[in-house]
Amino acid sequence: FRTRKKYLMLYFLLGIFLGSSMVLAFYLTARSEHEKQEILTSQIIKEKKVILDFLHSMFESIAQGLSANDIYKQIVHGGLTTIEGVSACFFKFNSDTKELVACASEGLFPLLKTKLPKKLERSKMLSLAMHGECFDYGESFIGGVARDLTPISLYGKDLVNLPKNNDPALKIRALLIYPITFRKELFGVLAI
């Protein structure tokens, strides 16, 4: 009879242990899901704040009567801030010549068309990169986005057609190219 009590007590304790373990597992899973949801909510709030800050700065620029180039700089800065990029360039569309000309940039935006010589002084290389480039309507990724009015993102093997730069500061890891339009009229292309 005593042995039977010991086994019943052992089964009872084992049941409490297993039940407690299951409750703890469910609690930890629910807590993990709750933490994931809080992180997601926090990211959404941060993204909305960035967008609202960008819209506010654009409204201020327009209200102050800033020049088109200053507004282009605001677009570049807003794009960089929104996706936390390293560099960006705005290519203004000239409807008369059908060209997209780099007119505003932030950070060291790499050349997308011109291949730099391998043995070029770093200062000359960076100077060339800072002057920007010009693309014909429909040419390369920049002109293609202007023609199709469809944004594209490039990374990994998509970047093989772009010139390779020896300088690590000019290395392209990913590229987002977005048309900037108003009432279906193309103003330019933003590359980040």
Write structural notes for this entry.
Helix content is 51%, strand content 20%. The chain is of the alpha+beta class and 192 residues long. Strand 5 (174-182) and strand 6 form a beta hairpin. The chain is elongated. The termini are far apart. The mean pLDDT is 81.
Tell me the β content. 15-25%
Number of helices: 4
Poorly predicted residue ranges: none
* Main sheet: strands, sense, barrel: 6 strands, antiparallel
Total strand segments: 6
What Rg, in angstroms, do the CA atoms define? Answer: 28 Å
Based on secondary structure, the structural category is alpha+beta
Instruction: Give the overall average pLDDT.
Output: 81
CA(first)-CA(last) distance: 80 Å
Shape, per Cα inertia axes: elongated
As laid out across the biggest beta sheet, the strand order is 3-2-1-6-5-4
The run of helices and strands is HHEEHEHEEE
How helical, in percent, are the residues? 40-55%
